[in-house]
Amino acid sequence: MTDPLLDIRHLTTEFQTESGTVRALKGVDLTVESGQTVALVGESGSGKSVTSLSVMRLLARSGASINGEIRFRRRDGVVIDLAGESEAGMRRVRGNEISMIFQEPMTSLNPTVKVGAQIAEAARLHLKVDRREAQRRAIDMLALVEIPDPELRAEIYPHQLSGGMRQRVMIAMALICRPALLIADEPTTALDVTVQLQILSLIRRLQKEIGMGVLFITHNLGVVAELADRVAVMYAGRVVEQAETSEIFKRPSHPYTRGLLSSMPVIDYEARERGQLPRLREIPGSVPDPAVPPPGCAFEPRCSWRLEACRAEVPPLFDVGGTHRSRCLRWSDLDG
Ligand SMILES: Nc1ncnc2c1ncn2[C@@H]1O[C@H](COP(=O)(O)OP(=O)(O)OP(=O)(O)O)[C@@H](O)[C@H]1O
Question: Cα–Cα distance between 120 and 169 in angstroms, integer?
Answer without folding.
Answer: 11
